[in-house]
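User: I'm writing a short report section on ligand binding and want a predicted complex to refer to. Could you take this sequence and S-adenosylmethionine and write out the structure as tokens? A short remark afterwards would be nice.
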Amino acid sequence: MSSPPPKKSQERVFNHGFFQSAGLILPWLTPQELANVSLTCKTLHQIAHPITLHRSLDASRSFENLPIPFHNTLDQYPYSYFIYTASQIIPSSSSSLNRQFWGPNSTQSPAIPGSSSSGAGMGCAHDSMNRPGASWVSLVDESGCECEKCEKVSEDNVIGCPCMELEGDEGMGIMSECGPSCGCRLECGNRLSQRGIRVKLKIVRDVRKGWGLYAAQLIQRGQFVCEYSGELLTTKEARRRQQIYDELASNGHFSPALLVVREHLPSGNACLRINIDATRVGNIARFINHSCDGGSLSSVLVRSSGALVPRLCFFASKDIKEDEELTFSYGEIRVRPTGLKCFCGSSCCFGTLPSEHT
Ligand SMILES: C[S@@+](CC[C@H](N)C(=O)[O-])C[C@H]1O[C@@H](n2cnc3c(N)ncnc32)[C@H](O)[C@@H]1O
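Assistant: Sure. The structure tokens for the complex follow:
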């Protein structure tokens, strides 16, 4: 005996439930999974389509102050997939970050399943100490200033705060800012790099370099652009990953974003090495391409009073026009003469991308 056909109202309840659950589940899927699901039926295709559109409109999933859209007129990829973190994270908290909600209503989404981190799945907040993905490795010591607001410090005339210190050199700049051990808050003029991204940016696809970060407005020389965020690795782990990445990159279809920063300590005998891997978990700085002429960005190691690990930040090294690509130099050393081809287009291009033994 066949069961009677469902009544119209039952059908409506079913459809409503189906749409609701699909709308909750699909934003957790990777692009490949989303494409597979959307092929199964018209309804799922209709649910998947706005998710793809939403992803292409903001690489930062609302974690930054401004949306950072993808632009691609070359091929079928509407966006690049990775897990977003606005600040450094330590691998113990990122190992469980296998998925991240990325779709409409990202800001109301729950955290990553199975993640013990408070981070990368939640809505926007722009206090760098409380920003999603923030896992400040901090050592609160006596070195912070006692100021509550750093009254004497203004955005363009940063003087007066005892935490302020700038050591310019030909390579990487080093800067000190107020931090966890200071009495002041985020509005303090000596925390310029801690308030998130404040300039309009976009990510554009290039036929030879892949995705690249571009200015979507005029950026003035000296303005803070962004921090290089990702997983903070031990040197052993960085070397292990580098080997894998080199192999994958040699076929030309993989863009690693593992950055090694070395800071020579004042004694001259020691060198602090910081390994930041933004390949799987990172922020929009992972899209900054190399230029042999040094590019338009200066990299500055920012120490915040009381924070154990400095952060790598990018500031405009010249006035950058709207639609201009943002680049910096990945380094000078080229241990592999037959390394990956460089397409920076500068008059002093070496022809290959920098490479070194990590
Ligand atoms: C940190 S990623 C930059 C973003 C990358 N283009 C992407 O599509 O995700 C570094 C990789 O970008 C590519 N790249 C960066 N600068 C380049 C350049 N000047 N010429 C050619 N490829 C470049 C290389 O594949 C490099 O391994």
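A remark for your report: The two ends are 72 Å apart (CA to CA). Confidence is low (pLDDT under 50) at residues 108-142.
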